[in-house]
Amino acid sequence: MIKITLPDGTIKEYSKGSTPMDIAKSISEGLARNVISAKFNDTIVETVTPLNDDGALTLYTWNDDEGKKAFWHSSSHIVAQALEELFPGAKLTIGPAIENGFYYDVDFGAQSVSEKDFPAIEKRALEIARGKHDFKMHPVSKAEALEKYRSQGNEFKVELIENLEDGTITFCDHDTFTDLCRGGHIPNTGIVKAIKILSVAGAYWRGDENKKQLTRVYGISFPKQKELTEYLQLLEEAKQRDHRKLGKELELFTFSQKVGQGLPLWLPKGAALRERLEDFLKKAQKKAGYEMVVTPHIGQKELYVTSGHYAKYGEDSFQPIHTPKEDEEFLLKPMNCPHHCEIYNSRPFSYRELPKRYAEFGTVYRYEQSGELHGLTRVRGFTQDDAHIFCTPDQLDEEFKKVIDLSLYVLGSLGFDNFKAQVSVRDLDNPDKYIGSVENWEKAENAIINAAKEKELDFIIESGEAAFYGPKLDFMVKDALGRNWQLGTIQVDYNLPERFDLTYKGSDNELHRPVMIHRAPFGSMERFIALLLEHTGGNFPLWLIPEQAVILPVSEKHEKYAEKVLNSLENNEIRALIDNRNETVGKKIREAEMGKTPFMLIVGESEEEHNTIAIRRHGGEDLGSISVKDFVDLVTKEINSTLKSF
Amino acid sequence: MIKITLPDGTIKEYSKGSTPMDIAKSISEGLARNVISAKFNDTIVETVTPLNDDGALTLYTWNDDEGKKAFWHSSSHIVAQALEELFPGAKLTIGPAIENGFYYDVDFGAQSVSEKDFPAIEKRALEIARGKHDFKMHPVSKAEALEKYRSQGNEFKVELIENLEDGTITFCDHDTFTDLCRGGHIPNTGIVKAIKILSVAGAYWRGDENKKQLTRVYGISFPKQKELTEYLQLLEEAKQRDHRKLGKELELFTFSQKVGQGLPLWLPKGAALRERLEDFLKKAQKKAGYEMVVTPHIGQKELYVTSGHYAKYGEDSFQPIHTPKEDEEFLLKPMNCPHHCEIYNSRPFSYRELPKRYAEFGTVYRYEQSGELHGLTRVRGFTQDDAHIFCTPDQLDEEFKKVIDLSLYVLGSLGFDNFKAQVSVRDLDNPDKYIGSVENWEKAENAIINAAKEKELDFIIESGEAAFYGPKLDFMVKDALGRNWQLGTIQVDYNLPERFDLTYKGSDNELHRPVMIHRAPFGSMERFIALLLEHTGGNFPLWLIPEQAVILPVSEKHEKYAEKVLNSLENNEIRALIDNRNETVGKKIREAEMGKTPFMLIVGESEEEHNTIAIRRHGGEDLGSISVKDFVDLVTKEINSTLKSF
């Protein structure tokens, strides 16, 4: 008999050689039906692997990440079989599960695979799946394994096997297919009910651009057809909401080959939107006691030697800027903190004057490889809504709470109500990794945890995730498509005050080190706007959207009245414009819908006569004809319902 | 007899050998008393130089720049004599007139001259002046001249003479003193009534740091003692108003050795002031149809190769930024125009959509040698209140007028009422120097001149001062101390639209080139704020000043009331603070005066009882006790009187 410890801590006895599936069945038939993968003592095993020792067992279903991983990895075997059959001579290499689905890298030789082949691949893969073939692992000697692939002329698998130790090599079979594999499969192919080939792309063998280019076939699979349908809808929706697409359509930003990749140019509507966001935060920050500062976008190399950034990131950053006549070196600033430290250092402070809260919409530059750039989410230049708070250790508690209040206000005003927080603290087993006294760390970690509790955040604590210079709290938001994004951060820093020799005079008349808090509720203006575009699909909150209303005169003779309406709206600070192009009202409405304009104000004979406007909401709702004043009230009320004052 | 043409065009006959002074006397005794220098056929002559040919003669008095030049150059001879007498063995080199006064570069050998020697030098120089010694020029052979200075061991004069041609060498004598000199003196030393030695500084012989360091003795002189007194007061006033001094006292900006020279860090009060200025201009620009854009602070080298800036300025600029992994080169942006051209180029335009007016508070970086940096007026990074207008050639006229309107509004709102404009046009003799068609140049020059006339500007036209790419108009303002500053500029550009291949579709359905206007009413935020500091001595217009009022509770028990007052003021958007330090009201008033706060609001027993505030204006005026509401009205009225809406 062996003793099996289950995740809830219960220990049960089973006869030696029992499989995870046997154990699942012993717990409940329902569980057994759903179990598709298992972990035994930190090793992923098959559901049919016989267990011969005491140990801890976790059973996974489709709802677990590990379950999905086994599901998708198994699906890649099925697709590989289909590919081998449909493209004779294709050489298989590797086929792992990824975050969403799986891929298989294949050398198709002289053949090529394109979108038009996808239906045939899907059809054959599904046929195989329906055969309910068990996945069966079996050990193979190194010589035998090499012989198999040498005879097929598959130099990739040969290379993989050459790097493995004899005695550890396993293959996995199902139906007529066999593949070199470490394991981690679902019980049988029949569990896979839906398979979709998503795309093909070039990929170098082992990611090395000097090696052969293979074809990477991406796919995804599900235990229910309905789930695939939903996933494809989500993909389509994400494509429609892609901020690069919307940014272009709504004329928010552009890129220029001449200016350079990853360096966004903000077009008038985008620049105005950005400014509204900045003004919104500035106003709240002013109330919260922040002071704005302005600092240059470069700094002498020495500044970053002092801060430690040069030693750490110098080689991978934009390289130093030299001057023509003098022996000077400057760096594009990758962050604003060293500049703010120098501002703090420009005069002495007494404890009575703290906290000092310096804020700046500071544009920073960080080198990213061109292949990694992506719209506004991965850029080479971006503007942080940055601030640095310099306070006494005793003020940390209060300051942290205030920063959380501000962050919650920002998230709430922008329609993010689904978020979590992560508190990153020290690894207590590695105290030497951290700068600053144990006492201060305890103070800071307690301050963060207490603040998170008091503010009723939904938060988790991650040990060992703190930076070497201090603990932190990050906000993660879930967007309208259920995707997670890391947003604003609040970090305690004991390092920079030390490196810049920052001081304040305490009540004891001695000099002390202030603590520094880095914080940015948006994170970066670029990334935040990208996220907001994808979250709202371009239907920004009314207070933020570029044009709140478009006035559509039914014919030319109503243009005068339209201008009168526009004038009233402008006097009430409503952003509107008149569409007096020579087009039908129907076409103008369709285009205003495309342009995400929240209100279409149609003015014709009747409206002019009764001094009203006929209101149509984005999406089609007809609000009837009302006076301009009533419309202003409607807009004001709607704005006030989302945009509370801080 | 010779024919002499006078500046008014009249031609008079004089006997050969007549001197300019003879001619002055023939015109009027009064003129003769004031004439101190003359120009004959484009050559500066002495007032006693005999004229032997027909020619044009201009007579100069102290009121002419050329008159001052002769006066100060002659004064340098007088001071040189005094130095030679007081510091035996001192070797004289050169002693020219400069913009304000003169200097003489002297090798004092082992001796040294410092401030404590100034009174003795001034005393002796004035004694010499009072001797009414005539300045007398006489020719000297090269051999004789070399012999004189060789015998004195003065290698500097020897070097100067060696480079002169025999037969052209002259000396000037007065009293016991003689000096190598080309001429340009006043009649006699007696005209100089006041002499002041201002400072001494090191200066390399011929400005070459590899040559010997000499002592430069700076001085100034006047025909009346009163004028010297006034000048010294002005100097003192300028010192008090030095923006570097005021910027520090008012906590507006600072510099950091670590960040780098010439890179200002804006402190909270300065950043807020800057933002108010920017908001002021943004508001006016919005009304004037400008759209804000945001562009990065770097651009690929290719961008500046396209614009032509790299070829022209590349070597003398901050050097290219390389990237670690890819073969890329970026430059810090020295101007915003190439980025704005790329924004224009991001989509096609029809003539109906023009003009497009893109504005940006764009921070640019230009390398200046460290020795040339000066406070905020000569920096390495600064923010331009930049905009680029893209219009059709036919719109140029109208657009230029609109830009002048905006510029006049800006100058007027900031208290500059003493300004001139300079219109820079082509050199018609060198048509090849310019890009763009003759037709377009004529159109543009006429547009500028007509606009300047129509807007009733006090302007001059300078031929040949236009840039190669287009004509321009510059504003020069005179500050409170009578000093001239070049401010905003409006430039027409035919070059960049060509280089960036900018187009619009005309009414003929063909593609045409737009014209571009560069304009910046402030010029740069840094330089403008420096100028405003020196012009106002820190007493900024009420709408702009950091703190409009400070509330001074007479004792601790009135602090509650002070807070009530502060609250009312804040609700009325008046920037105020409470000075509740444990100091006397007298000291607080003195410090508020130093801090340039326009209003001091004293609150004590009586004020609290009657719900009033006792108002003291900056400068000391007592406005008595009034209600907060009346004070708000007072402030509002005063602001509205300077800050009209555009």
Question: Can you walk me through this structure?
Answer:
Two copies of one chain form a homodimer. With 646 residues, chain A is an alpha+beta fold. The first copy, chain A, is built from 20 helices and 33 strands. Chain A has four domains: 2-61, Ubiquitin-like (UB roll) (Roll); 68-240, Threonyl-trna Synthetase, Chain A, domain 2 (Threonyl-tRNA Synthetase, Chain A, domain 2); 288-536, Bira Bifunctional Protein, Domain 2 (BirA Bifunctional Protein, domain 2), CATH 3.30.930.10; 549-642, Anticodon-binding domain (Rossmann fold), CATH 3.40.50. In chain A, the strands form eight sheets. In chain A, strands 16-20-21-28-25-24-22-23 form an eight-stranded mixed β-sheet, with helices on both faces. In chain A, a hairpin with a 2-residue loop joins strand 10 and strand 11. The model of chain A has no long low-confidence stretch (mean pLDDT 94). The interface between A and B is large, with 59 and 59 residues.
